[in-house]
Design goal:
Blueprint lengths: L7 H21 L4 H12 L1 H12 L11 H15 L2 H19 L12 H22 L10 H25 L15 H9 L11 H27 L1
Helix pairs in contact: 1-6, 2-4, 3-4, 3-6, 4-5, 4-6, 5-6, 5-7
Length: 236
């Protein structure tokens, strides 16, 4: 059975992704911070396992460098779990949307067989690259802080620009064609929509900013409103 896109199998895996992360929250919510960290750490390292798998499994290392957003997320996630770094934690609270998009909009994986190793090393890392950053905040292991919005946007743009330059370097110096973070060409319907609005490589992916802005507003508006109200009361 293949995974497919919006097939019954795909929909079930989406539901399962939500169930697994919610179950983790209820399992850990009354545990000590040490226990929460020890449990979340193995889940946070699945993405690194996937990076190693792809580099070793396929005879095309330049095509499987950890330069996609989810791969960079995978490298940073265990660090955040262990250190509880506020800046990186708030960064991954945004980057986790990329992991969610990867399992919802699984266009490049529709023909993958369920229960295969390829499916395992794609699906489960993305499930927890989405869920663990949110769990870190729900369990109060990392502080949510709207003041991290500038660093989140700045780091994201720097990383994206670096990845685009790596795409251009690899494509110009080798026979391998890479498209990390989709900066060079639109290879799925969502990215193609962005490209239709700004048909220029690199720049068209900035069309994701309105989505990020709406998400940031939803995530931080309660905190910002609370801060505003407390300041207003202090003045009175």
């Amino acid at each position: 059975m293949i995974w497919g896109f919006m097939t019954p199998a795909h929909i079930i895996t989406l539901i399962l992704a939500a169930v697994m992360n919610v179950a983790l929250y209820y399992l850990l919510r009354n545990k000590s911070q040490k226990t929460q960290t020890l449990v979340l750490l193995p889940f946070s390292m699945l993405g690194i396992a996937a990076i190693i798998y792809n580099l070793l499994m396929w005879d095309a290392p330049l095509s499987y460098l950890p330069l996609h957003l989810c791969s960079i997320n995978a490298i940073l996630l265990p660090i955040v779990v262990l250190t509880r770094n506020k800046t990186l934690g708030n960064l991954l609270l945004v980057w986790c949307l990329g992991a969610l998009a990867a399992i919802v909009l699984n266009f490049e994986m529709v023909n993958v067989e369920l229960f295969s190793d390829v499916f395992f090393f794609y699906y489960f890392p993305h499930v927890f690259e989405f869920g663990v950053p949110i769990l870190l905040f729900r369990l109060k292991l990392v502080e949510k802080d709207y003041k991290c919005i500038p660093s989140t946007l700045g780091i994201t743009m720097v990383i994206y620009t670096f990845v685009h330059l790596m795409n251009k370097l690899i494509n110009s110096c080798t026979d391998t064609h890479v498209n990390y973070m989709f900066s060079v060409e639109a290879t799925n319907p969502l990215v193609a929509f962005f490209h239709s609005l700004i048909p220029v490589e690199y720049w068209y992916m900035y069309m994701v900013l309105p989505i990020v802005a709406a998400y940031l507003l939803a995530v931080y508006s309660p905190q910002i409103l609370k801060k505003y109200q407390s300041r207003k009361q202090a003045v009175q």
